[in-house]
């Protein structure tokens, strides 16, 4: 275990937000105990947790899971028939016909693996996907951790390095440090809507010489927390770069269901890879990740995810699967994952309601993102590039250092908990904030009102 002094400075810088989490919990407790505050409750929009922000779960998902947990509900004729049929099928693939049994294999229930593979083939226009290449676990952090531990080796100049976007998912720096892997930062281009730049990848790789041995490149597409969606040309460039430099591609694609930018669409790294020449499609090692924490499902607390491995050496793949054998994945999130990749079909009793609920989530997200972005850009000393996907806005504060220090009082004065850019690896002179905009419109109204009130008071303190 690394000492605090040994921790990567970039990682050490992200520990401060924990104190904000503790402060938010303390303030919320004080309110429950009757303390008088200028606000009625703490609003936490620092993390991409739509249910915590007040978004309703998807009915079909909760109904099926409820029946699986309590099979007596199979007798309830008030539940849609397709809910009861799906629950019965899912119980049938569980060991002993019960969620209380262990998962039938260490990499997941075979029926769920098959459903994920079929989903990927539909998504990518028929590109082959094999169930044996699908591994299911309790969240993307778990699957990525397994991969990083497998790759980790060496010390000093030979220690494994991973090219990592800046900004990056806020949990990633600490995970890399825990797995004893060196973070090699590459800067996304803020002036181009946080686009990935090939020259910047080359620069980052060059800076790693003598410091570590880069073995992988981490990609977040759509970007977390930036919301940037990569186009086919960019993806092809990254694949060629990975091939030339012998890097494994780690593609986190959790927000693929939430692209709302005009003329933008999600294209998976796998689809692009398989459309390229054989010298790439048959050799580049790719591991992609998806999760039930996605925008539309929002089932963050159930902790379910899958990864698909492509072109991995068979011996390495076998070893990776053996690493998972020590702990089989929980059953409930696997069933939730199966529902996510295999939703109701046209003609099913639940289809219309399910479609309306998904549309409501996507419409709310798109409208909230546009509205909040316009609001932030109208505030003096703040700017926010338009987002294309995902659940976050990532805005920059153009304020002097003394005002930045005062801005940290937002939680105490307004009960508003935003994410800080330092959590996402931002270590430059600029200060960024991260806010989740997947929330009911009324909640967003309250968030923006509190933010405006505090920001204008802050500007008055420093005329």
Structure description:
There is one protein chain. The chain has 18 helices and 13 strands. A 7-stranded mixed β-sheet has the order 2-8-7-6-5-3-4, sandwiched between helices. Strands 9-10-13-12 form a 4-stranded antiparallel β-sheet, with helices on one face. The chain is of the alpha/beta class and 463 residues long. The N and C termini lie far apart (48 Å). The protein is globular, with a radius of gyration of 23 Å. Helix 4 packs across helix 5, helix 4 packs antiparallel against helix 14 and helix 6 packs parallel to helix 14. The chain has 3 domains: 155 residues, Aspartate Aminotransferase, domain 1; 40 residues, Helix Hairpins (Orthogonal Bundle); 240 residues, Type I PLP-dependent aspartate aminotransferase-like (Major domain) (Aspartate Aminotransferase, domain 2).
Question: What are its keywords?
Answer:
463 residues, 18 helices, alpha/beta, Aspartate Aminotransferase, domain 2, single chain, globular, 13 strands, Helix Hairpins, 7-stranded mixed sheet, 4-stranded antiparallel sheet, 3 domains, Aspartate Aminotransferase, domain 1, disordered N terminus
